[in-house]
Design brief:
The protein is mostly beta strands. It is 12% helix and 39% strand.
Length: 223
């Protein structure tokens, strides 16, 4: 990512903190957040929610945050979602120097159709959906492309086989499996005697836990 392509967002300081005031901000279309790091005091801000969501949908990890006409580059550290997982309600941003190396997780983007999937019962498994990388703040890729079209049954790709952009280093071990093609064997159907015995027993105990009530609190800055 070149420096001149870093998206910019306007932010306003938040003087009042707490879940009640944060909820008021959200009703106004604002997204509460906090900026921290680089041995400076945390700064609580609010930004236009739709503008931030647009930036995040573009898979940007870095943004210029403008507060009181002063701009500073910030790294997206974490986002907090509502209890339905459908709406962002808070964002954590870390101040960053554009010349320093940072660690972030980027999405893995799988392309192609594995030749092994032509076999009956074959499936594509990818234990990793994202990859932790280290690179300059200005070199964070939107995603890492994983080409799977040459994969046959019982073949796999590891981290060391990924094609990473120049200057980008994977943190996971080189032999970590990223994607593999396997054949799933069908389990034999239970015999009549086994099936009858299963229905004759007592009903299974349902184990669960009550839903946790959401308590909306502003994310505390990391030290």
């Amino acid at each position: 990512m070149a420096t001149n392509t870093i998206p910019s967002v306007q932010a306003e300081k938040r003087d009042r903190l707490g879940s009640r005031y944060a909820a008021r901000q959200r009703k106004l279309g604002r997204l509460p957040g906090v900026i921290y790091g680089h041995q400076k005091d945390p700064l609580h801000v609010s930004m236009d929610r739709e503008e931030v969501v647009h930036i995040l949908h573009a898979r940007a990890h870095l943004m210029e945050v403008v507060v009181d006409a002063k701009s500073e580059p910030c790294l997206v550290k974490s986002v907090q979602w509502d209890h339905l997982g459908s709406k962002i309600i808070h964002i954590d941003l870390a101040r960053v120097d554009l010349t320093e190396r940072v660690r972030v997780h980027v999405d893995l983007e799988f392309t192609g159709e594995a030749i092994g999937l032509k076999q009956a019962g074959a499936i594509l498994e990818h234990p990793l959906n994202s990859l932790e990388i280290e690179c300059l703040a200005t070199q964070i890729p939107q995603s890492v492309i994983v080409d799977v079209h040459n994969l046959d049954v019982d073949q796999f790709l590891t981290v060391k086989e990924l094609v990473l952009p120049e200057g980008v280093k994977a943190i996971a071990g080189p032999d970590t499996i990223v994607v593999a093609v396997h054949v799933v064997s069908e389990e034999p159907e239970p015999t009549a005697a086994v099936a009858e015995g299963a229905t004759a027993g007592t009903e299974p105990e349902v184990i669960g836990r009550p839903a946790k009530e959401e308590g909306e609190e502003d994310a505390k800055p990391k030290k």
